Each structure stands twice: as structure tokens, then as C-alpha cells.
């Protein structure tokens, strides 16, 4: 296998005495989908925020394309090729869907010729081109989720971090977004997905990392992880409703 695009090495993030992320390591390769799962409070969001630069790790290193990016701020990481979505969808509500994506294509101090054409191409990839001219606030939830992915894609990421983009969607809407994410993998984008929708994560992910109480408790292909005793115990022990099927 090629050198990992993203390497997380012995990363910890503590809040006072609470070890929200405790000595976690994993790799993400080009064109790979890695699922990050675990019961509520496992540390998934904290790990995600640490990789995307919103939290500084208490210890450990994060490398992107062979370069140490530990502690870099989000805007610099975005410019390097690490894109992310937000759990709470937050488009500019009062501008059009297209202009929302144009803002990502252009970015601060980044003039781009034909930004609108590029934004349209991004909207096609998330099957939202037919909604380009309406105000973002008028989109239905599944469309808002796809716009969130489009805004992240507009920055031309090589790694895309997706935070619960399937939450609140119907099974049919989940199928649709799964198809879009599989398409991004075919383009060679590496995806790190934090998600509670087990059906989706199990069928989409090439590999899965499982966290519980801040630690990595398992890693591997979906079928192996789902049968792992520690994983089953971590979910059942917390009476979590999102256990792997
Ligand atoms: N900013 C913060 N300050 C203090 N504690 C925090 C902070 N953010 C998270 N925590 C704590 O860190 C632990 C891990 O939380 P985190 O949100 O990362 O888990 P999670 O796996 O994403 O959970 P969920 O699936 O419920 O979103 C929890 O005990 C949480 O209360």
C-alpha cells in the first residue's frame, strides 16, 4: 500500500482531567473510506475536531502527505487539502445554493476565474445542480446536508472529514448520499466518516476505527470489527441504540 495520506500518531486531547481522546493512532489512505465509530461520548467528535485543527492535541502528531500538520489552524489545513463538514449544517442562508459553493471555491485571498462554473461542477457531483438558484434556507434537510458536502468539496480537498452527514435522513436519502460518497472515493478523495448510521458505515467503509472512552478499542474491515467482543461490549455496556448490526 502507498504511504498514508493522513497519519494520526498517539494523539491525545484532554479537557482538564478528562481524556476525551487518549493515545489514538490510525492511518487514512488515498481513495479510502475510513469509518470512525463508537458509543456516545467515545471521543469521535473530539478526534475529528483535532484533525481539522479546531482543537490542539494535548499530545501526539498528525501528518498530512508526509508533512507535520499538528496544531495548524483550520484555514491553513483547508488550503492544504483537508476539508470538513459541520454536524450542524450552516450554509449562508440568504444567498443561493450556487453562491454558497462559489464562496468555497474562491475563499479568502484566492481569486479564481470561472468560479461559478467550478461551483456548478461541484453541485453536479452532489446531485444538487437543479437547485443552484434557490436560497439555501429553502432547501430540505437532505439537500442541506448535500450542500454542506458541496461547500467542503469546493475547497478541492484530498481528505474530506464528514461529521454525521446522514443524521436525520430517511433510508432512501441515506442511500442517495452513500452513492455520492462512493463517487468521491472513486475520484481518489480519502474520506473519514463519523457516523451513527451503522448500515451505511458498515457497507461504505473500507476500514473502521472504533473508539470507546477516548481510546481506540478496535480497527479493521467492517465484518471483523462488528464481530469484535470489545466492540459489542462497548456498545451494549452503554445501552447505546446505535450498536453495529
Ligand atoms: N470542549 C469540551 N470541554 C470539555 N469536555 C468535552 C469537550 N468536548 C467534549 N468533551 C467531553 O469529551 C468526551 C468525548 O466527547 P465527544 O463529543 O468527542 O464524543 P463523541 O464520541 O463524539 O460522542 P457523540 O457520539 O455523543 O457525539 C465526553 O465526555 C464529552 O463530554
Automatic annotation (TrEMBL):
One of its GO terms (molecular function) is ATP binding. PROSITE patterns: ABC_TRANSPORTER_2. Gene3D superfamilies: P-loop containing nucleotide triphosphate hydrolases. Keywords: ATP-binding, Nucleotide-binding, Transport. GO terms for cellular component: plasma membrane. It comes from the Bacteria. Residues 6-238 form the ABC transporter domain. PANTHER family: CONSERVED COMPONENT OF ABC TRANSPORTER FOR NATURAL AMINO ACIDS, CONSERVED COMPONENT OF ABC TRANSPORTER FOR NATURAL AMINO ACIDS-RELATED. This is ABC transporter ATP-binding protein.
